[in-house]
Design goal:
This protein is mainly beta. It has 2 domains: 2-7 and 310-385, Immunoglobulin-like (Sandwich), CATH 2.60.40; 20-306, Neuraminidase, CATH 2.120.10. It has one helix at 2-16; strands spanning 21-25, 38-42, 45-49, 57-61, 66-70, 82-86, 89-96, 101-109, 114-117, 130-134, 137-141, 156-159, 164-167, 179-183, 186-194, 197-206, 211-214, 227-231, 234-238, 241-242, 247-248, 252-256, 261-265, 273-274, 277-281, 284-288, 291-292, 301-306, 329-331, 339-343, 349-354, 359-361, 368-374, 380-385. The strands form 10 sheets. Strands 1-28-26-25 form a 4-stranded antiparallel sheet, with no helix packed on it. A 4-stranded antiparallel sheet has the order 2-3-4-5, with no helix packed on it. It is globular and about 65 Å long. 40% of the residues are buried.
Length: 386
């Protein structure tokens, strides 16, 4: 009976993953356009910094769709840097100021609005590296040196708690401008540029074992300067450029780590983009700025809203997940005494437990969208916690 139920879950999941969505234009970023800007999200505020050789720093109120300018980033004017957030603080690393490239690490505290410089990486400074966050650590590697502009092939772990760097095993060939994002303890990363090669390859890096695995290639053109984020256990890849044939792309793709497969979503309505920023807040993906097909540097911001079918309640005569949305408990009839794993919308494990009498207590979870995975099944049931 259990296998039949899991098969039904499989069918329902497969019907839901093709849910589409719509693009909506939001308020422009103040001031001039920019490419290669950094972005990170803390609570309900997004931050965008640097890009196009500036030290500008802005915050964006996601609920009110309003921007305000903050004091400049103290690391100076730079381009090709990276940004991310961990445990309620924002970080900027790497980049190029027009003369020198860096592997420095700057920490922003939104409570004090202050920046603190942390320990720099032990390797050569670099521009457009690949990176992604797993837990309290960020993994950074590859990119280009500033003097020879030679591509680098390395991989480092930076631990925010201890402020230390550790050499890790590289798993891709030398390149710059790759893109990646994290689901669980794995980073999914690929694409990029090296000499006359535009890569369309795709890999996973297991941070627990320091090992790499080759996966199904990215289905679009090989490219560099695209961007990617994780949402609900999947990776979303946006835009980029074929720097050899000078083609800029407007495609938007979804990668499912469970099935190692790609799905196309509605294309970006404002045309191809090179080096945009991209961030995710709850279930919604935002993209902005970059350079368009007419080589115009943009300052716009867009939101991709997934179809409401993406979080619809799963119901058949044999299985129900209810209530959905829920506040304190969800019920999964015909499933009992099974091991349960719950993932948040970034693909991180937030709870491991055993379901008791078909009910699951979710009071410890914050509001948002989650996935429940049952025992050894590769499929996940989606629900909304209010």
């Amino acid at each position: 009976m259990k296998h039949i139920i899991l098969s039904i879950i499989s069918i329902l999941f497969c019907l839901s993953v093709n849910a589409q969505g719509t693009w909506t234009q939001l308020s422009d970023i103040p001031g001039a356009g920019r490419h290669h800007a950094c972005s990170f999200v803390i609570d309900d505020t997004a931050y965008v910094a640097t890009g196009s050789g500036t030290s500008d720093f802005f915050k964006y109120d996601i609920h009110s769709d309003t921007w305000s300018q903050l004091p400049d980033f103290p690391g100076g004017n730079r381009n090709f840097a990276i940004g991310f957030s961990i445990n309620g603080k924002g970080y900027i690393s790497c980049g190029y100021d027009g003369s020198n490239s860096y592997m420095d690490m700057w920490e922003f505290d939104p409570a004090t609005q202050n920046w603190t410089q942390k320990s720099s990486g032990p390797a050569v400074g670099r521009v457009h590296p690949a990176f992604s966050v797993v837990g309290d650590n960020v993994y950074i590697g590859q990119g280009q040196q500033d003097i020879s502009w030679a591509d680098i092939n390395d991989w480092y772990e930076y631990n925010m708690t201890t402020d230390t760097w550790t050499v890790k095993t590289p798993g891709m060939s030398a390149r710059h401008h790759g893109a990646g994002a994290t689901v669980g303890n794995k980073i999914y990363v690929g694409t990029g540029h090296h000499l006359d090669t535009m890569f369309d390859d795709w890999y996973s890096y297991d941070s627990n074992t320091d090992t790499w695995q080759t996966l199904t290639n990215f289905p679009g053109n090989g490219r560099s300067a695209g961007n990617s984020v994780a949402r609900q256990g999947k990776i979303y890849f946006f835009a980029g450029e074929d720097e050899i044939n000078f083609a800029r792309f407007d495609d938007f793709r979804e990668y499912d780590p469970v099935t190692d497969s790609w799905n196309s979503l509605p294309s970006f309505p404002a045309g191809g983009r090179w080096a945009p920023f991209m961030f995710v807040h709850n279930d919604t993906i935002y993209v902005g700025a970059g350079e368009d097909e007419q080589v115009t540097v943009r300052n716009d911001l867009w939101r991709f809203d997934f179809s409401t079918a993406d979080i619809n309640e799963f119901t058949t005569q044999s299985i129900q997940v209810f209530p959905n949305p829920a506040t304190e408990k969800i019920y999964i009839p015909n499933i009992s005494n099974a091991n349960i794993t719950i993932y948040d919308c970034m693909g991180r494990i937030v709870l491991k437990t055993k379901i008791n009498g078909s009910s699951l207590n979710i009071t410890s979870l914050e509001s948002g969208t989650y996935h429940v995975q049952i025992e050894d099944s590769t499929y996940r049931i989606r629900f909304l916690k209010k």
